[in-house]
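Q: My labmate handed me this sequence with no annotations at all. I'd like to see what the chain might look like in three dimensions before we decide whether it's worth expressing. Could you predict it?
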Amino acid sequence: MAIDRTVVDRGEGTAVVLTHGSFMDHTMFAPQIEALEDRYRIIAYNHRARTDRWAETYDLGDLANDCRQVLDERGIEKCVLGGMSMGGFMAFEFARMWPERLHGLILIDTKAAPFDLLQQENILRDYGKSDVDGLLPHDVAAVAVARCFGATTIERNPELVAHWVARWRKLPARSVYNEVRSWLGKADNRPELANIDVPALILHGEEDAIFPVSVAEEIEAGIPRARLVVIPRAGHTANLEQPKASNAAILDFLGSALGST
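A: Here is what I predict for the chain of 261 residues:
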């Protein structure tokens, strides 16, 4: 079945595909699209939770298949695949299923380890309130602010925070609930990190309140050709909160990674 999915496809050259995290949508990559489209073909799209398929039950394998479909529909054989948080969980699945289709990975504020039972309980406590009819409740959006943005952004860039809260409050509540359920039981990707045979950039916010920098260091240690860049004054959405530093790291990575392809 076709998915009503917004896809941004700009520029020419090697494809760089960017996939968002929970609560977010493709517009979280607007700073990267603007910075990269003169040099690369940049594709950013909405996962199922931001489409007409939000009410369905799905998992990360389904999202990886969706990503493959985005590539197939555009005749793209290989890409650099970027994923923020949930998008990173999906990217690990994609790398396991279709490693031959990757030039490289960009992993933004994500983790390879699974969520233990206590973590799952805490996540469901915070987001279980979205299992209701209607639009996303205010208290769920408030929890998301503290999780998605770093302290510096909350203090110094309230306009950015307010912009996203307004977007979240228009979401069907269960679109968020089903989105969280899709990754809550994610696999332990750590044993497979050594099999990732492409360059990887790990971009991580210094103020990430969900995943500490040690989580990113674990990924860097596991992937043979990985490089970690910690973004100061950024939280869980590092590329959005500090786009200048993030874009510099991404451009540097793409220049070195694609120079050998």
